[in-house]
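# step 3/5: fold
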Amino acid sequence: MKTYHFILILIPFYGIAIAANYKSKPKLQEVDNEKQIIRELNKELATPLTKETKSLNTIPNHVLQYISTYKKTAVEESKLFNIPTSIILAQGILESNSGKSSLSKKYNNHFGVKYRKKGKYVIYADDTPNDKFQVYKSAWYSYRDHSKLLISSRYKHLTKLKRTDYKSWAKGLQKAGYATNKNYAKILIQIIEQYNLTKYDK
């Protein structure tokens, strides 16, 4: 008999409660084919929502570490693709739970990017129980692919905005459907202002 554990994750800051069920023994199954598909049978949320603190004086260490680790890469991507550094870092913090999510730790996917028809993918429960997410060789590849995604036809109009206009960027990403969360823009803006990420846009 298979054993299941039910976990209720309460996120009071955003007023959201998420229930996820996990198999007691996660398994990986690799399939050898030309697409090098990886299928993870243990289902969990691909892009967990984080409970962020309200005070800049109490920024969690893991968030500070995430910013310190990836700010240089984010600045480089910003200059190359005209995307606000603050938006890049805020999305990374949110989508990867500051590098603590399984999707970012195991598969280097820091932005919840769905499978882009090349390389490997992993299956997680997200919008549907079997969503395919891109697998990357390293975090750098994730950051670069994220930049390429944001200059694709769906989001390209946003690159006409000033790199300092993070609010319009956040609202534009939500409107273009980057995430299904109706408060996505508000959350990004909160993270940017809470952690003073605009200083990297200068």
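# step 4/5: annotate
The first helix runs from residue 61 to 81.
# step 5/5: archive (pending)
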